[in-house]
Design a protein that fits this description.
137 residues, mainly alpha, three-stranded antiparallel beta sheet, 7 helices
Length: 137
């Protein structure tokens, strides 16, 4: 299940790390309104991301607080948006995607670049293991 959480966070970071930073701030008890204003996001977007993690289990919201910084550090955005967010261009394959909602971009990354995503998930898990080992010495 933790790998599912990390996979979700990695794909979100590949699309837009700003959204992940906003989620991190929100999970660390900052006001939803303040976080939404700071990052220029809709409150429902941030709430929806938290809700998706909560579906894995309530404990995963707490785990996400610790995992998100590793994901932000390890993963660079590969999607660029143009025409006010109407089009997304995948930096991995060059495909232009008409953005009806961000779920379309998420599905593209998940479906067509799953090998790359799995490589990043493994890398984040390895970083977490190293951190845990250092913390217990």
């Amino acid at each position: 299940m933790i790998s599912q959480l990390i996979r979700y966070l990695v794909i979100e970071a590949l699309i837009d790390r700003k959204r992940l930073r906003a989620l991190y701030d929100y999970l660390n008890d900052e006001s939803l309104g303040i976080v939404a204003d700071r990052y220029g996001l809709d409150k429902d977007t941030i709430r929806g991301m938290a809700s998706r993690i909560r579906q894995l289990g309530a404990v995963y919201l707490r785990i996400a607080k610790y995992v998100i910084p590793f994901v932000i550090e390890k993963v660079s955005e590969v999607v660029t948006f143009k025409d006010g967010g109407k089009w997304a261009i995948c930096g991995l394959c060059g495909k232009q995607i008409l953005v009806k909602h961000l779920g379309v971009v998420y599905i593209h990354i998940d479906r067509y670049h799953s090998t790359y995503v799995e490589k990043l998930v493994g890398s984040v898990i390895e970083d977490l293991r190293k951190c845990c080992r250092q913390g217990y010495r």
